Structure formats: structure tokens, C-alpha cells
Amino acid sequence: MPELPEVELVARYLRPHLLGRRIARIATTRPSYFFLTAPALLQKQLPKRSVTSLTRIGKYLIAGLDNQQSLLLHLGMTGQLIMASVHNPRLVTSKQKQLREGSTLTEFVPDEHTHLSVYFDDQGPLLYFRDTRKFGKVRLLGVGQSDPRLDKLGPDALTISTSDLVLASRSRRAKAKALLLDQTVLAGVGNIYADETLYSAGIHPERPANALSESDCAALAKTIRSILRKSIRAGGSSIDDYVHPDGSDGSFQTRFNVYDRQGEDCRRCNGKIQRIVIGQRSTHFCPNCQR
DNA sequence: GTTCCCCTGCGG
DNA sequence: CCGCAGGGGAAC
After folding, report:
1. Which positions in strand C are less than 7 Å from the protein's CB atoms?
2. The pLDDT value given to residue A213
3. pLDDT range class, residue A240, cuts 50, 70, 90
């Protein structure tokens, strides 16, 4: 689900619902590589802590705690952060919405994919971290402790500059698509926004990075920032699952020019959108508009 | 830099 | 049955 716009929207939604609240207890599923910090340790450390901040860096979220520790979260491919209360039922996934219409389901019920449930002292809505594929991550960072994953991140994609891209592309033979997906070059762009960016900038996804001119880099930087902001304004992209912690959907998926549009007409010329694979990721582009 | 793998579910 | 999925890290 989540690339930068979706993670940013999750952060914006959660902040007013999370900041200042004190954790009473948590419930977790069994240890798995989803838990970079063992569930038992989380259960020992999190209770009695208050959440003091929520920051997004690239596709990561960092919840600051009142003892200067912090909780590092990544949603992976299918992660969802859900704010829900049994007293004020909220719907969760499109699938559950469908289920609800034809059944008696009236509230979010934590299931086997709900790996973390956070209860608060105020008895208010709970925070759930649900993730079917378990590609998401949870890690408790001690005081002053950093994480190699964060340390390696490049500049945030929302503020990427031309010179950032010029510098990174010069020495790389990787394809342009791979460049945009490389989180050490810029943090936050994923498969959808990489394809959409390359289309809007008129750059072929297989163009070698070191063959990008300075004006190409300028176009890329400007387009990345612009598309991510537009998506945020549209509530992000919702494909199979919900985006927002209250179960509502974004709408940017209706404005895709290339992503998942293979075989369909290009909106700019009359060519057909192609699909190829780059670095194990599906890649969509217009062979006519992108060179 | 590219390939394989982690995991579950969906649709053809 | 197979391929595919919004992510990323480890291994060649």
C-alpha cells in the first residue's frame, strides 16, 4: 500500500489522535521478523509511556516517547495503522466493507494479521498495526539509538533537489527507474510514483542514470515533488486496501497515467502503455512519450 | 547492480 | 495451478 504520500497521510491523521496519550498495555502476535524488537520487550517497555511526537522520514514513521525512546514503524507492502474503538466502530479494509454490507460485521475485529494492538490509559480508541504479509517492521529505539535503515536514507522525496539527483545519477549505471526506487538516493518514492514521475518527466525507465542531463534531473526533481504533493492533496492512492487510519480511501489512483494501465491508451499520444520488469518490479511507461 | 527471498491473498 | 502485488534486505 504505502509510499510517501500514504505514509504522510497516516502521520497527519494519527498525530491529533495519538500525541499526548499514555499507553496502558499492548497486545502482539508471536515473534516474527516483523518484530525487529521482540514482542516481549515491547510489552515490557511501552506501557506507561506517552507519545510525544510522530515523524515521517521517507516511508518510515517514528513515534517519539516521553522517555526519549522512540518506536520505529514501517508499513512494508500491506501494513495498515488503524485507529479504532469498539465504542465508535470504524471500518477498515475495502474487503471488510464488502463483508459488512452483506453480513453483521459492525466493527474492526483484530485478526491474526493484527500484530500490534495499543491500549491507552484514557480508554479511548486503540491503535492497531495490521499487516498481512508481514513485510512491515516495528522496532523500539533506545535513547540516542539510531537505526541503520534510517541512517542510509537519502533526502526526503518531498524536498528533493536537482543537485541531489545530478550528484546521485552521475556515477550510476542503474536504470532511471531503479534510481528513483533507491531509498539511499531519495527517500519515499515507490513503484507507483516512480512510474508516474518518469512518465510526466518524459524519461524512459530504462535510460541509464548516468545518461540523464542536468535538465532531466531538474525535470525529475520538480516532477517528483509535484506528483507527491498532488497525491497527498488527493488523499493518496488506494488500490486493494484502505489508506487512512479511519478506513477512508484516497483517490489519486484514478489519476494514474501509466501505473497498472498496460495495454491502455496513453493519455497524451495515441500509443499504448507498455509493461516491463526492472529490478523485479513491474514498470509501466509510454514508449512514445518517454525516451 | 541484479537476483532471490521474506509472507499472504487474489485473480486469471 | 500460476503469476502477481504499493517494500526492502541479503546474497551473489
Report:
1. 4-9
2. 97
3. confident
Percent of chain A clearing pLDDT 70 (strictly above)? 92
Distance CA A153, CA A142 (A): 20
> Does residue A100 register a pLDDT over 90?
no
Q: What are phi and psi of A194, to 5 degrees?
A: -65, -50
- CA distance linking residue A2 with residue A252, whole number of Å: 13
- The grid cell for A130 is 495490521
Q: Which nucleotides of B are covered by protein (CB under 7 A)?
A: 1-10
Residue tagged 523485479 (cell numbers) = A280
| CB within 8 Å of A13: residues ≥ 6 apart | A83, A244, A245, A246
Phi, psi of A96 (to 5 degrees): -70, -30
Q: Determine whether the distance from the CB of A142 to the nearest atom of strand B is below 7 Å.
A: no
Neighbour order of strands in the sheet with A23-28: A23-28, A114-120, A126-131, A79-84
Q: Spell out the long-range contacts of A73-76 with Cβ–Cβ below 8 A and sequence spacing 24 or more.
A: A73/A129, A73/A136, A73/A137, A73/A138, A74/A136, A74/A137, A74/A149, A75/A1, A75/A2, A75/A6, A75/A7, A75/A10, A75/A131, A75/A136, A76/A131, A76/A133, A76/A134, A76/A135, A76/A136, A76/A137
Average pLDDT over residues A218-233: 98
pLDDT surpasses 90 at A52: yes
